[in-house]
Write a structure and sequence with these properties.
This is Diphosphomevalonate decarboxylase. By secondary structure, the protein is α+β, with helices and mostly antiparallel strands. 33% of the residues lie in helices and 22% in strands. The chain is built from eight helices and 17 strands.
Length: 361
């Protein structure tokens, strides 16, 4: 380092949106590298509504790597954080800030420590993909700080090692995570299918049934499913490959009835394999089931789907309306069936359009 003073701090801040899978990832073939047993497809949400903001800082006065999540210090000991840090450090390049008189060489990065401060503006570990926005943001901000010159596809393979779903948050619009074939995971990357402008009539509503942290994390839930469910192999090998092809076609053609049918069926099958796990895992609750009933009934009465529902590993509903009019009618229905301040009221509703990763740095 040209500057030997320990006073300087270099910082980068970035934001990353969450993404919600319409064809779900559930099950790993490699726990350490995080390699999935099937391809998945998701839609990236608008970071104005649900996003992670992460600031990463480096200074010669830091004597260890440290991280704060939602203002509380957490341990970086787990393999996932270490894997992401190692992969980014391995690609770090020279950084020069003439104004501050700072010069960091590629070699310096191996000995410098970072402090990470991350904040989710939505419930953490409640089935709204906080791990996706969180690890995408962590990898993206560290890559900026360390001047890593890799495209978002390569960065997605690093974010994947933090949390599988995180690889898809590196792109906006509809995104596919290709499971890949290689043992080292080099071809297990996110690929953008269409950007956020392609199907911009869609409106996404999040109905927060509960902000509480789930009892079974996605990581342990899917491990138990792979170990004990008789249905998961059929899902991964037979059902999902067909659905991936159909879903890509529906998205390309903006074919809402097919899109809605595939999205709802895939969510329901994911929760069915959770229930087929021993002991069974229940991510949805009675309110979630009532939301499904409400959407199904309305779609049937209209003769063609107006809204698709999908639930990740938690009770909260993600509703994708075919257009703004359907979204408004859906909200009215939700308010009628789940009145505010009643036993089954929903914490909040968020309407979001699809959007792309924004670099706030
Ligand atoms: P979710 O459904 O919210 O993705 P998961 O069980 O998959 O729930 O993951 C939750 C975990 O993800 C948290 O316990 C934490 O370890 C990690 N995580 C969440 N937000 C962040 C963040 N902003 N930065 C880093 N890690 C995060
Ligand atoms: C139901 O990506 O959170 O949201 O890779 O173990 O961190 P880890 O799991 P995670 O699992 C997401 C599961 C899901 C479906 C999906 O996002 O595809
Ligand atoms: Co997650």
């Amino acid at each position: 380092m040209a500057e030997q003073s320990k006073k300087w701090v270099l910082m980068v801040t970035a934001q990353a949106p969450t993404n919600i899978a319409v064809i779900k990832y559930w099950g790993k073939r490699d726990e350490n590298l995080i390699l999935a047993i099937n391809d998945s497809i998701s839609v990236t949400l608008d970071p104005a509504h649900l996003c992670t903001t992460t600031t990463v800082a480096v200074s010669p006065s830091f004597n260890q790597d440290r991280m704060w999540l939602n203002r509380k210090e957490i341990s970086l000991a787990g393999g996932r954080y270490q894997n992401c840090l190692r992969e980014i450090r391995a690609r770090a390049r020279d950084v020069e800030d003439e104004k501050k008189g700072i010069k960091i060489t590629k070699k310096d990065w191996q000995n410098l420590h970072v402090h990470i401060d991350s904040y989710n503006n939505f419930p953490t570990a409640a089935g709204l993909a906080s791990s996706a926005a969180g690890f995408a943001c962590l990898v993206f901000s560290l890559a900026k700080l360390m001047n890593v010159q890799e495209d978002n596809g390569r960065l997605s393979a690093i974010a994947r090692q933090g949390s599988g779903s995180a690889c898809r948050s590196l792109f906006g619009g509809f995104v596919k995570w290709v499971m890949g074939k290689e043992e080292n995971g080099s071809d297990s990357v996110a690929v953008p299918l269409v950007d956020e402008k392609h199907w911009d009539e869609l409106v996404i509503i999040i109905a927060v049934v509960s902000s509480r942290q789930k009892e079974t994390s996605s990581t342990s839930g899917m491990r138990e499913t792979v170990e004990t469910s008789a249905l998961i192999e059929h899902r991964a090998k037979v059902v999902v490959p067909k659905r991936i092809i159909q879903m890509e076609e529906a998205i390309q053609n903006r074919d809402f009835p097919t899109f809605a049918q595939l999205t709802c069926s895939d969510s329901n099958q994911f929760h069915a394999v959770c229930m087929d796990t021993s002991p069974p895992i229940f991510y949805m609750n009675d309110t979630s089931h009532r939301v499904i009933g409400c959407v199904e009934k309305w779609n049937r009465s209209e003769g063609t789907p107006q809204v698709a529902y999908t639930f990740d590993a938690g009770p909260n509903a993600v509703l994708i309306a075919r257009n703004r009019k359907a979204a408004t009618l859906m909200l009215q229905r939700l308010l009628f069936h789940f009145p505010p301040n009643s036993d089954t009221d929903l914490d909040s509703y968020v309407i979001g359009d699809k959007s792309i990763l924004k670099d706030a740095g």
